[in-house]
Structures are given as C-alpha cells and as structure tokens.
C-alpha cells in the first residue's frame, strides 16, 4: 500500500504540471497603446493585450536563419508600439489586430537595443 500512494501522487502532480503549463498564471492586462505609451514604467515587463492597426510591416530572417515579423501597432488615438514575433505572419498594412505579449520599455540583445516593444506570443 505504501508504494501505491507515491505513484498516485506522482501521477496527480504530473497531470497538473501538464495542464497548468499551457496556462499563464498572470493573465494579460487588456490596455490601449496610448496608456502604455504615456506610462511605460507601469507596464514594463508585464504581459499585455492591445488592439490596433498594423503599420510599417516587415518580414525578416535572422543570421541564424529564423524568420520573424516586425511591425508598429497603431492605436485609435495614434499611440504607437513596436511589435516583434517569431515566424512569418499573414498580415497586411492597415489590418486591425490584437497583440498579446511581454511589453518592454527597453530590450537589450547582443549588438542591439529596442525601445517600446511587445515581444508577442500571439497576434490575432
């Protein structure tokens, strides 16, 4: 009987880990581009969800051969946030989208610094 309980507990923990791994513990903050732009410090490092129109759309490939998409998300009142997402998305300039991802006031990567950017996990 002793050996069975640990196996059952292990199974429960394993199932919970699998189920919870697909869910964000902190849901994205639904916000406007204008609010982020006027108070960048409050949203820095937070998961956000923002609607707007696609502008300055670019499809690129890194030196390592990875495709990615960048664009500027323009809000209703003109607030602008840069967006980066891995992969080549089927987007068009002017298209209305909802972007969900991690907002960074300043993002530093080797040899580059990016400002006012959402590293998107989803664009709908």
Write the layout of secondary structure elements.
Elements: H1 4-21, E1 29-30, H2 33-38, H3 40-43, E2 47-61, E3 67-74, E4 80-86, E5 96-109, E6 112-123
Parallel strand pairs: 1-2, 4-6
Antiparallel strand pairs: 2-3, 2-5, 3-4, 5-6
For the secondary structure, the number of strands is: 6
Query: Low-confidence spans: pLDDT under 50, at least 5 residues?
Result: none
Using only CA atoms, what is the Rg?
Answer: 19 Å
Strand content: over 45%
> H/E element string?
HEHHEEEEE
Helix run count? 3
How would you sum up the global shape?
A: globular
Biggest sheet strand order reads: 2-3-4-6-5
Helix/sheet category? alpha/beta
- Termini separation comes to 51 Å
Mean pLDDT score: 87
Helix content: 10-25%
Biggest beta-sheet profile = 5 strands, mixed, barrel
Q: What can be said about this structure in brief?
A:
By secondary structure, the chain is of the alpha/beta class. Helix content is 23%, strand content 47%.
Describe this structure in words.
- The structure is a single chain.
- The protein is α/β, with parallel strands linked by helices.
- The chain has helices at 4-21, 33-38, 40-43; strands at residues 29-30, 47-61, 67-74, 80-86, 96-109, 112-123.
- A 5-stranded mixed beta barrel has the order 2-3-4-6-5.
- The protein is globular.
């Amino acid at each position: 009987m002793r050996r069975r309980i640990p196996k059952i507990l292990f199974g429960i923990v394993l199932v919970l880990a699998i189920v919870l791994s697909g869910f964000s513990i902190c849901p994205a903050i639904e916000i406007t581009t204008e609010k982020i732009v006027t108070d960048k410090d409050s949203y820095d490092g937070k998961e956000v969800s923002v609607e707007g129109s696609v502008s300055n759309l670019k499809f690129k490939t890194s030196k390592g051969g990875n495709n990615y998409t960048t664009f500027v998300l323009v809000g209703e009142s003109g607030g602008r946030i840069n967006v980066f997402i891995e992969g080549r998305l089927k987007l068009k300039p002017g298209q209305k989208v909802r972007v969900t991802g991690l907002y960074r006031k300043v993002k530093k990567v080797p040899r580059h610094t990016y400002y006012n950017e959402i590293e998107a996990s989803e664009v709908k």
